[in-house]
Amino acid sequence: MYPNNEKIPKLKTGTTTMGVVCKDGVVLATESQATMGYLVATKEAVKLFKITDRIGMTIAGSVADCQQIVKTLTALVSLRELEIGKPMSVKAAAQLTAVLLFQNRLFPYYSALLIGGFDSEGTHLYSLDPFGSLIEEKNFTSVGSGSVVGFGVLEAGYRDNMTVKEGIDLIKRAVDAARKRDIASGGKMQIATITKKGFEFVN
Amino acid sequence: MIAQNLVSYRIRCAITQFSPDGRLFQVEYAIEAVRRGTTAIGIRCIEGVVLAVEKRVLSLQEPESVEKIFDIDTHVGAAIAGLTADARVLIDNARIQSQINRLYYNEAISIPVLTKKICDLKQIYTQHAGVRPFGVSLLIAGVDDSPKLFMTDPSGAFWGYRAQAIGSGAQTVREELEKEYNENKSIDEVIIMALKALKKVIESELDPTKAEIAVIRAETKKFERLSFSVMEDYIKKADSGS
Q1: Which of B38, B47, B125, B166 is the most interior residue, by most CB within 10 Å?
Q2: B107/A89 Cβ within 8 A
Q3: In this structure, which topology does domain A12-202 adopt according to CATH?
Q4: Cβ contacts (< 8 Å) between A91 and chain B: which residues?
Q5: CB B77 within 8 A of CB B108
Q6: ipTM score assigned to the predicted complex
């Protein structure tokens, strides 16, 4: 019925998410298209979330799995902050997410995440794969089907010690390129900055 | 009938029951066990935290095998007064909790969080049926953002201190600490202060086999136990100073 004798068709999905580390904060950005094969399921998917006032997260992969991760992580981080009586560090939140993913490695959350934030130790950006690998990114990174396009722009435009303002300009160009050239990416652009002022969405 | 049996069963099994005036005698008896224990002192200053304990070593006993100060993680340790066997169980639990914290959060556990974890366990043993409370108080000393010192009691309550003593000589030592305490003292001065206070409650002459000292410096955040030879030097200084 279907190619390769498969009863259930594998619907091609796709996303573009990216993060840029600046000297005074982190910029996270995604586009907003949810794709199922040849169908654009929605043009207004939310892929960028505020976890705390100092931590943001982008999601890519199964929407159901990612939404559960966001909700679980938000709850766990709230409990942890009550326990320690101060804001959680980005490193700790990222490690907690990695444990959450690794504990489910037999039935993994189908997700690729970026966690970015600003804390007493400065700016941080982490990328996580579905099994809980945790990599700290010093400059920038991108995840999803549109990442190959985005990386090109980021690689060419990134400089050390960028300001958040310059970071926003760069990430806009990168997401825009992915929206135009990746078939599974499109819709609107969602951008957020996490600086010492906290988590803010950029219009 | 069944309900009545359940009630009487519960009364027989639950050891810690409220008295009519709202006290928990078993917990109070456990606190009494701490009062009869060896003296332990904790002093916090800007440079770090010092733990000092009295050791009662019998004539043919190996002094090194008597342990009253335990390291829990690289940056935190605890001194005990009361039942040593009960303390070991709490220390084992505390060590596991600090490793869990590293595994889940990639961070060394903060001292108040560790104290709460230990007290959670202590509290359970004041409320469950068929168990008795831990007959031990801990002085938990460590450095997270800054040097910290906490005391726990058998009920599971805890308080933060700049300086505190537990065990049989606690009252005498506390009076001494109240007179001598100054946050700006150096670690060396604090160790000598602790030894001087300890001398007041030890019946015989103080020597390195009769005391145990550990230091966690704010600079290194590392738990260090003083060796016999280093302790000897400090004891000499404490002797000459008094």
Answers
A1: B166
A2: yes
A3: Glutamine Phosphoribosylpyrophosphate, subunit 1, domain 1 (3.60.20)
A4: 105-107
A5: no
A6: 0.81
